[in-house]
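Need residues for this backbone.
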């Protein structure tokens, strides 16, 4: 009896030990999520936070995917960093890579769980694997959510619109991630207030914005049209609107947008239309930036269902789509890959190969240049000023001509000694009109020298 008990105890201990070992060696599998942030720094894609209706742990999970090696989306090896995370549980934040060496993750805003305290900005140093809360100077900035961060080549993070206290905004926040200073961009001719829009860094000078959601559109808010697109000029600090044509996508928000590999196209994926999920055939569109025409690209491979509130990154020749709402995890993978290296036919695939580099970008010489709009009063003022200058020049030329003509005529009227044989030269006979004689007698005069 005692021996049987001992054997059962030993067996139970062995089972527990095996379970513990298995738990320690089991690969990390993150919870399904949406509204997370996905930031590519060097060869790591960092995923943080998000929302899940079934589990709250998703809000604090922090992990990354190594994209320097090949992987299959059906069996992804995630690296867990949750144990070092200091950011409160949250979703709907914006993130970029920035800092002096472009190796720091900057996280702005978001919605903390249960209105918990959360700082405006957090930083993650990817070289030391450490989080921090930076001290930032400049303009006073409020905490918003559901907006997208775009960083330019000089380390400035641009944050347009978003939600503040449940209301859509249309201001432009700018964070210099190198000197840690806030400033405000221009609101003149800015798009209408919106959140969960598409934003794409299309050149060293321009960011393109389109679509989104507006709380001002109706009682419950509504998705916005993609017929009009908006450029923000980061150099001149101004806005410009363009009207598109072609196969214009349906109104939508919570979608993603990226720049094509040739630098002359914007590719959008997914989204929702006034809370309605989009069909797969209505999920993928391309906007030609040369003539501003929309079209539906030719696609091959196993076409996945549409999703929204996901995140995208262009890595190599792939659009890497991570998580989101609207997909069944038992059918689709957490990561989707769209090969966009061939403009004639995009291809959905499960295999990521970092060694297959995309073709070189085409020169953007045909990219539409954004020039500042000159106000009409300025144009009128310049025109009037130019006319006045021309009139003064003409009058000045006329009076100079008359002066020279009168001078020559009066010089010819003065006889010289010996010029006429019967003329007795007499100084008293020589009468040179003076300025007073002109006023008194109306005679022409030679101006006194």
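Answer:
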């Amino acid at each position: 009896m005692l021996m049987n008990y001992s054997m059962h105890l030993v067996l139970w201990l062995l089972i527990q030990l095996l379970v513990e070992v298995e738990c320690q060696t089991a690969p990390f599998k993150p919870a399904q999520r949406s509204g997370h942030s996905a930031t590519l720094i060097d060869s790591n894609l960092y995923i943080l936070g998000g929302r899940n209706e079934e589990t709250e742990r998703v809000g604090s999970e922090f992990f990354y995917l190594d994209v320097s090696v090949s992987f299959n989306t059906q069996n992804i090896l995630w690296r867990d960093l949750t144990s070092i995370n200091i950011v409160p549980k949250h979703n709907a934040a914006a993130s970029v890579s920035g800092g002096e060496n472009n190796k720091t993750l900057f996280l702005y805003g978001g919605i903390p769980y249960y209105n918990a305290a959360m700082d405006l900005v957090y930083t993650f140093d990817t070289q030391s694997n450490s989080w921090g809360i930076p001290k930032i100077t400049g303009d006073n900035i409020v905490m918003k959510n559901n907006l997208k961060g775009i960083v330019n080549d000089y380390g400035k993070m641009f944050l347009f619109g978003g939600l503040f206290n449940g209301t859509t905004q249309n201001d432009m926040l700018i964070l210099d991630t190198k000197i840690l200073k806030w400033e405000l961009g221009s609101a003149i001719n800015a798009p209408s207030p919106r959140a969960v829009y598409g934003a794409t860094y299309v050149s060293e000078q321009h960011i393109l914005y389109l679509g989104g959601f507006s709380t001002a559109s109706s009682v419950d808010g509504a998705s916005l049209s993609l017929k009009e697109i908006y450029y923000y000029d980061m150099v001149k600090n101004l806005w410009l609107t363009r009207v598109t044509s072609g196969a214009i996508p349906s109104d939508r928000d919570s979608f993603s947008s990226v720049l094509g590999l040739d630098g002359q196209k914007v590719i959008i994926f997914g989204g929702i239309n006034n809370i309605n999920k989009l069909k797969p055939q209505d999920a993928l569109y391309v906007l030609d930036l040369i003539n501003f025409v929309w079209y539906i690209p030719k696609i091959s491979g196993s076409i996945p269902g549409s999703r929204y509130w996901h995140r995208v990154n262009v890595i190599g020749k792939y659009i890497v789509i991570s998580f989101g709402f609207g997909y069944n995890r038992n059918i689709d993978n957490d990561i989707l890959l769209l090969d966009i290296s061939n403009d004639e036919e995009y291809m959905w695939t499960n295999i990521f190969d970092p060694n297959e580099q995309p073709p070189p970008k085409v020169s953007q010489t045909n990219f539409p240049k954004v020039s500042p709009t000159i106000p009409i009063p300025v144009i009128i003022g310049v025109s009037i000023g130019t006319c006045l200058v021309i009139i003064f020049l003409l009058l000045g030329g006329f009076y100079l001509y008359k002066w020279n003509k009168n001078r020559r005529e009066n010089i010819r009227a003065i006889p010289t000694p010996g010029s006429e044989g019967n003329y007795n030269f007499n100084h008293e006979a020589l009468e040179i009109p003076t300025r007073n004689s002109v006023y008194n007698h109306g005679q022409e005069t030679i101006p006194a020298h």
